[in-house]
Amino acid sequence: MTTKLMGQKVQRVEDQRFLRGQGRYVDDVAVERDLLHAAVLRSPHAHARIVDIDVADVLDVEGVHAVWTYEDLTGPMSEPLPLLIPHPDLTHGRTQYALAKDEVNYVGEAIAFVVADDRYVAEDAVDRIRVRYEPLPPVVGIDAARAADRLVHDDVPGNIGARMEQSVGDAPAAIKAAPHTLTLDLTVERSACTPLEGRGTVARWDPDLNRLQVWTSTQSSTGVRAVVAVKLGLDLGQVDVITPDVGGGFGVKINHPWPEELLVPLAARALGRTVKFTEDRREHFISSAHERGQVHHIEVGFDDDGRLLGLDVEFWHDHGAYTPYGLIVPIITSTQLLGPYKPQNYRVVFESLYTNTVMVTPYRGAGRPQGCYAMERTMDAIASYLGKDRTEVRSVNFIQPDEFPFDQGLIFQDGRELEYDSGDYPASLEKIKALVGWDEFPAFQAEMAAQGRHVGIGLACYVEGTGVGPYEGAHVHIETSGKVKVATGLTTQGQGHQTVFAQLVADELGCSFEDVEVVTGDTRRMPYAVGTFASRAAVMSGSAIHLAAKRAKEKVLKIAADALEAAPEDLEIVDGVVSVKGSPGSSIDLGTVSVLSNPLRYAFDEASKAATQFSVGDPGKPPVPEDEEPGLEGKDFYSPERATFASGMHAVIVETDPETAEIRILKYAVVHDCGHLINPMIVEGQIHGGVAQGVGGALYERMAYDESGQLLNASFMDFLMPYVTEVPDGIDIDHLETPSPLNPLGIKGAGEAGVIPSAAVFAAAIEDAERVGRPEFTVTAMPISPSELFALRQEHS
Amino acid sequence: MKITGSDVIPFPVTQVWDSLLDPQVLVATIPGCERLETTGEHTYDMTVTAGVAAIKGTYAGSCALSDLVEHESLVMRLQGAGAPGTIDATVQVYFTEPEPGHTRIDYDADAVVGGMVGGVGQRMLTSVSKRMAAEFFGNVGAAIASPSLAVAAPVGAMPPGERSGMPQVYTAPARPGLAPSPDFAKGIAVGAGLVLLGVLAGSLRRRR
Prior knowledge:
By secondary structure, chain A is of the alpha+beta class. Chain A is built from 20 helices and 29 strands. In chain B, helix 2 packs across helix 3.
């Protein structure tokens, strides 16, 4: 009897390849000898008018095949890149051109594109392009953007791309009437996804088939396919996009098309040669995307128990020079800020602002870390003000388990109601308190203080809308060998999709796990798909794959029932063999069922003989019954009404050095509720990765722009990321499983959760540690380095 | 970025001032300077080869002096661009004589450094710039001390009288060293600033 694989810690099938160096990334494809390589000339100025571009010195360089500037682009390629997610409040959305036209708005903006025999020649050629710029004053940082005495785009007054307001109840009135009020100003700096593999694109034009094949390191193959077709004037059917292994995405690769994703195919078609672009690290820093930079002003009214009566939040979002991804990040902050709480009266207003810096698109967590930080800092401030335990204040504000579904009365990032489907926040709180030792901590803190050591504890709660629509689909094909080929359209960046999706198929179909092969992100195999973002792959494609496997199974049972002369409901499938329940002798394997599903005229091997016309079929009926198709396949799509809401709580104990202000993590605990777990090991891996990235975001990473818009730390030499030595050795994890009612598997997303509460939880713990002897000590800006902590101490002493 | 610093040259301010306004001296003393061309009064085009860490390259740029207060101060505006990056700097240069026969030069540069140097090498720029400035002032001191050493000569030299209004091109001498020729068209000051153009330096590559 096969045991259910759902919920099992199944070893990742991908790791054999990855650990042996057999992963196949974009840079590994197309190794043919006549491959051409591209390099890009990028703006050294944050803001400048382009007076003149002189490429005369380039063309006679041996090995250079072509150079493009804006002047060479025609038709749709000469139009600005698409604004992917329009919104009525994005009144002044702007996107860049594939190659800059007249003006550059950030250091790194693409200006010219050179294709040569190899990257060395291409880069040398780039160096020979002479551009005359007329530098313009740059707008750097939220303060400068708000001051608006300089504009990023002349036609965008006040540098304001969008202003959006949402509210429930009457927050200002409720705050006015509240017995207690507080005001907080909180800042979060910029960071970035920084995947190990940067962007990369390879394109090959096939003149025999009149088709374009594109390999690209993206989070949306179908999105890239659609835009390549439109921009190059091709029919959708002429373009295939394949996403091979991806060495990390974390959000940055959901934005598309990057200029190179269009220019590489353009060059491949123009030159009739395969062309490759592989981004280098510096290019990734200055020409991909960042996130996180926001400033928040919060006013809150509450009662004696700390119960929220009114919450009024205004924040300013730095979206960089362009807005290709619309308002998704600030909308998520503005809605997910509410977390597990019900403030009764809530108003949120944000302005999304232009600056002369790299544009902003979602980075793992996508606006939630800032929202969580804003809300949880507020909870801590209320507790401190009332002299109450921080968990008590949270408790009185929780949405209770019997209140689901709970409608927050706002519109979420997918255009649908912010309605939480399920959760159990009081239970999570009990678990996290037990896991971190919340109640025992004061004694520990006193004991440490007696030794001259400063330790502090922090806690942060979040709710994460996961698995947003519109849909994903899946195709399951049982071959005559008995092997099961599964395809889903969204892409994989290391999450272990091949493993978890195979688990789902093996469970539903009754085949062996080893016989399942999963393909993702290949538009030839599944042309209808959306992409991998918003912790949606397991929910969306997992559900679609489950449904498609179910359809395939129905067909298996129908055909097997005929062959075994039994009723379908009397059959079971175990380890790839269909048999009549209770009489194991009467059986047929999946491969044979597949043979029978496809009536043949021509045999090609022993198995196929069984399906030829003199072997099978009722001569009185058509070989393929009406309403049926040949082949043993199932295809289905999953499209939920709305997102499903995962939740969790993190707690951390830190120690701060009284002399050096070094911050050390003593204990990190996570309680996580993503509904039913498909593979607990993979979920825990996601949490580990998220926590590691969160540690980076809270304590190390920032984008150091100087006032002229130069990114000063555009290398791994200067951009601090945590090593394994900075990530807590043990992360204690406990799971709570409140199943989602919105999908057949009862699952919720888990990919981003680990990073969401980091800024909040570290700010809280550091503050707690520093309050020993400094009761007014407050952390309002994250990330925080030892130097900044040291400076804060001076301010408070 | 802001770079401030100072150096002391063990010669009187009159001598130092003249040396720093002399393109023949400059081309030979600016670390990495290969070529200097006068383009007008107090303005020059120049070519400097320099590098910060692994980012080496040749920069083409210009330098203009203004607000000259003899033996006291001047303002230098520098612009340069090359494959490794760009620089746009305004440098205030002050001359004082803390003790007789010694000139103290204080420089205060406000520079915008772009391109790869700006992003990758900026962390090292301040120290590199100061090191180059020190090297430069050391060279100037050496030049004043040994005027007999090889001097940069104008390419296609013309009699001094015919120089005015005509571009003059200077290339670096085979060996460092030079003599001041105070009668030359007012040149540059340089100090920190010029060095900034080459700014960048880490290891500089001298021609020849």
